[in-house]
Amino acid sequence: MHDDTGAGGERIADGTAILAALERLPQWLEPVWAELGFPVVDRGRHAIFPLAVAPLIGGVEPGRAEALNEAAVHLQNYGIHFYGGDFFHAESPLDLEAGYGRRLADAGPILLNPPCLIWWGIGKLAVVLVRAADPVRSLETLSLHVLPKEWVWRWPPEPSTKREASRARRMVREQAAADASWSWPPDAAG
């Protein structure tokens, strides 16, 4: 689906439809992202679903890059209402200094509104709505990043067995190797 988002933007996919499709995934299977039927940047254990792009007008400051803000606020409110957290309606912040949050921060300027990224749990997955700036291509972008929930929610918090410690180390390695960047159209990355 390619609808105009206003301000010269392009709507790539419907975020609420993607969230609904993620809900229907069987939890015992590893997701095959392309089978969901939406444009996707498949990174293996994690995926990036582009939602919209728009010309970056006025710079990368959150108060000035506003072309996709309304769509982001709508989807964020939807996500908070339906997926607020594990068995409670509270937002879970994503740490931008560690793990996948660090990978997102390294990929380019993130336009934060509210002033933190939050994630929602859907089954065994964590979903992060990201509004970012691509200063090189002068684009504002909106996307859903879908990753294993264990990347952002470690349980138990402190491993008590060798198996748990090994799993925790593997999660750290996977996140360090994760690629959080994307471009649209897909072949624009070169």
* Helix vs. strand class: alpha+beta
**Mean pLDDT, as a whole number?**
81
Regions with little confidence, pLDDT below 50 for 5+ residues: none
Order of helices and strands: EEHEEHEHEEEH
How does the major sheet shape up? 8 strands, antiparallel
- State the share of residues found in helices, binned by percent: 25-40%
| Rg from alpha-carbon coordinates | 16 Å
The overall strand count is 8
The count of domains is 1
Question: β content, as a range?
Answer: 15-25%
Task: Using the alpha-carbon principal axes, give the shape.
Answer: globular
Number of H- or I-type helical stretches: 4
Give the CA-CA distance, first to last residue.
23 Å
What structural keywords apply?
8 strands, globular, eight-stranded antiparallel beta sheet, alpha+beta, single chain, 4 helices, 190 residues
Describe this protein's structure:
With 190 residues, the chain is an alpha+beta fold. It has one domain. It is built from four helices and eight strands. Strands 1, 2, 3, 4, 5, 6, 7 and 8 form an eight-stranded antiparallel β-sheet that branches. A hairpin with a 5-residue loop joins strand 1 (3-4) and strand 2. The chain is globular and about 55 Å long. The two termini are 23 Å apart. The mean pLDDT is 81.
